[in-house]
Amino acid sequence: MNKIALATALSLATTSAFAGGVVEPVMEPEVVAAQTASSSGGVVIPLLLLLLVVAAVASSSGGGGGGGSTPLPTLQ
Predict the structure, then answer these.
(1) Measured between alpha carbons, how far is 71 from 65 in angstroms, rounded to an integer?
(2) Which of 6, 16, 39, 44 is the most exposed place for a label (fewest CB within 10 A)?
(3) Which region, left, alpha or beta, applies to residue 50 given φ > 0 means left and ψ of -120 to 50 means alpha?
(4) pTM check: above 0.85
(5) Nearest 5°: phi and psi at 59?
(6) How far is residue 56's CA from residue 54's CA, in Å, rounded to a whole number?
(7) pLDDT computed for residue 51 by the predictor
(8) Which of 24, 22, 6 is nearest to 14 (CA)?
(9) SS3 letters across 31-43
(10) Which residues contact 69 (CB under 8 A, 6 or more apart)?
(11) Residue-wise pLDDT tens digits, 7-52
């Protein structure tokens, strides 16, 4: 009989422990990533593109004697 009473008491105690109640939820603070200030001001990418275009033009106009371009006449 004592075992039944103890089992009943424990089951009632654990039921009320897990029943929950009205508790205000804990809100985590929102993490906002701050934008870093850049000293270049967005100039780096256009300069790299300009450098790429200049390199492409310089390599296509060559003058190294390896292409199908006609040489310029020389003055004597």
Answers:
(1) 8
(2) 39
(3) alpha
(4) no
(5) -75, -25
(6) 5
(7) 93
(8) 6
(9) CCCCCCCCCCCCC
(10) 61, 62, 63
(11) 888 777 765 555 566 777 788 888 888 877 666 567 888 899 999 9
Q: What is the rounded distance in angstroms from the CA atom of residue 38 to the CA atom of residue 45?
A: 13
* Structure token digits, residue 69: 């371009």
| 67 secondary structure, DSSP code | S
Tell the residue number behind the tokens 């300009």, with chain if given.
50
Q: What is the pLDDT of residue 59?
A: 82
pLDDT given for residue 41 in this prediction: 65
Rounded to 10 degrees, the C-alpha dihedral 45/47/49/52 comes to: -140
Residue 53 confidence (pLDDT):
92
Place of tokens 């075992």: 3
The stretches of the chain forming alpha helices (DSSP H) are: 2-19, 44-61
Structure tokens at 1: 């009989």
